[in-house]
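If you are new to this repository, start here. Below is one unmodified record pulled from the training split, so you can see the exact layout before writing a loader.
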Amino acid sequence: MLDTFKHQGQRRKLVELLREKGIPDEEVLAAIGRVPRHGFVESGIAGAAYEDRPLPIGDGQTISQPYTVAAQSTLLKVKPGMKVLEIGTGSGYQAAVLCELGAKVYSIERIRSIYNKTKELLDDLGYKARLKYGDGSAGWRMLAPFDRIIVTAASPGIPAPLKEQLAIGGRMVIPFGDRKTQHMGVVTRKSKEEFIIERKGNFAFVPMIGKHGWKD
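And here is the target side for that same chain:
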């Protein structure tokens, strides 16, 4: 995949736009500035890759708006070496940003065609995320606990399995609400039984389909 001076210039402009929109975390902005977003969208719409809007990736799914990726990544407060579970691999763009932040990324995707395509893409780009095909709403119990969990699809609530798989002291960012509009939730696990839930603005995501999410 070519990453031209033009693409790099478009990324710099995108980063500056996100900064102007209020994204405060310079490490997140730098990570976004390194990820070639044009490689995560269909070639026919690659010209729009650095616009601050979601784009279709097939099967009714989208690559999230860069502002949303930046906002979730900022709320997640990732540090290098942290073990991060992503629910909803999608295009792989969020996973790539997390890798650029130094996280050990584990990601689950429920749509086989997207899983296959994204796994190959991340491998080709050198991002060492570990991917799984399955129901993300159930998490990845065999590899738990996780320092951080990020959910990139709308949930009707906060799935119990994800809370259970969050390490004590860990942090989860998850949009939850109805199918049209969700609160961006930040869940902090203080102890085995105590969780603090904060709401950080309204967003709109595709629904999280699964046993502990919305029904297909």
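Two things worth knowing about this chain: Residues 80 and 140 are 21 Å apart (CA to CA). The chain is about 30% helix and 25% strand.
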